[in-house]
Amino acid sequence: MAINTSAQTKRRIRNRKILESQKVKDEPNIVEQERDLGNALSWYSANTNSKEQKQYTLEYFNEVDKEVAKQLKKLEEWNFGTFGSICRLMSRGMYDPSLSTSTWFEKKKAELLVRASKKIEEVKVTQQKVEKPVLTIQQRIFNAASDIAGEIDEQIDKFTTNGYTQTDFQTKNFLLQQSVSAPVARKVADWFIPIRDELQGAYDKTDEQLVEGYSHITRRELKRFLDFVKDIVSACEQQVQRGKASRAPRKRKPVAPAKMVARVKYQKEFSELNLKSIAPVKMVGVNEIWCYNTKYKKIIRYTSDDILGIKGTTIVGFDVAKSQQWTLRKPNEFFKGLVIGKRPLNAAVKEIKTKPTTPNGRINENCILLGAF
Fold first, then answer.
1. CB half-sphere exposure, 278, CA atoms < 13 A
2. How large is the average pLDDT for residues 110-127?
3. Distance from C-alpha of 19 to C-alpha of 36, rounded to nearest angstrom
């Protein structure tokens, strides 16, 4: 995936100013590996470029494994980044990955070798082609999403190599600065959702293989890692909603309410909590809709200063800043004696202790339509 050079250059300039103010001129030395590694990597990020980082990698592997060096040489310079900086530290005898609890270096090495093998196939295919194909809209979206995901992936590398400590990177601000469109943001989210789900499975201990796979980090580090990736996915989903909201509305003929909600899938009743759905047609022409997802135990509020819309099986036009969803730890207690109304529902969610997130607007067969106001 290609890295956005503009964002990388700005970050390097910022880091260089910080380091110059501290009068750090020479390559850093590492006294205590776990403590000093993060600062050393920051120095290389600010003072070296992608060409040098690739050269560091090739210099190291030419000494320890010439076959690996031969394979990695095929890759573009942007692939190396943090990996190249660590190779430089290893060449200088400042770092030994075998003494670290993290397996990041070996995993990254394996990932680069896979990319190198694919690169050979891509070259063969390209040589066989006579005419350059015209990219479809979906291919353009995929390529743009690859660029954005590559930049975010580099930030994940920095987060993990820096001891799972929060960085100054904010996915939300990055997506806004890059003016990422809704289709591209959706594709980027699709890349990181499997990572989020994998980390969630490891943290919840629902999968023994995942628990074993992440046993090299502490539970606190795993939680920080999970929150970091959750924020990436949430920021992408919010960017999708911003893109929909900013899109100029097209003039359309009025659609009959019954036709508008004809494709809505929902759960008619949930006997466990004695909940029943309203008729979907009642969601037309309102500015606040409440749902309850019985599978994930989430109470969801969609709201807008304007009229909410229904498109297929999705609620659209909601305010991403005001619309929220909460996970209910004790659904029985929440709904016990609760009157399903706008004021009672808004008052009830104020007592929920779990952190709210932004909903995606989708309605499915696990959703009870509590009310529309």
1. 17
2. 72
3. 15
The larger pLDDT score, comparing residue 101 to residue 58, is at 58
Quote the DSSP letter at residue 357.
B
- pLDDT greater than 50 at residue 122: yes
| Strands 298-303 vs 275-276: parallel, antiparallel or unpaired | unpaired
Spatial contact of 162 and 38, defined as CB atoms under 8 Å apart: yes
What's residue 57's pLDDT?
92
Question: What is the mean predicted confidence (pLDDT) over 134-160?
Answer: 87
Residue 35's pLDDT is: 82
Q: Helices 137-161 and 104-128, interaxial angle, to 10°?
A: 160
100: which 2 tokens? 């670290």
Pair type for strands 367-372 and 288-293: antiparallel
**Nearest CA-CA partner of 357 in 309, 314, 301:** 301
CA distances from residue 265 to 173, 314, 365, 371 in whole angstroms, order as listed: 34, 10, 5, 15
Burial class (CB in 10 A: 0-12, 13-18, 19+), 234: middle
**pLDDT attached to residue 19:** 44
- What's the rounded mean pLDDT across residues 337-352? 92
All structural domains of the chain with their residue ranges: 5-246, 257-372
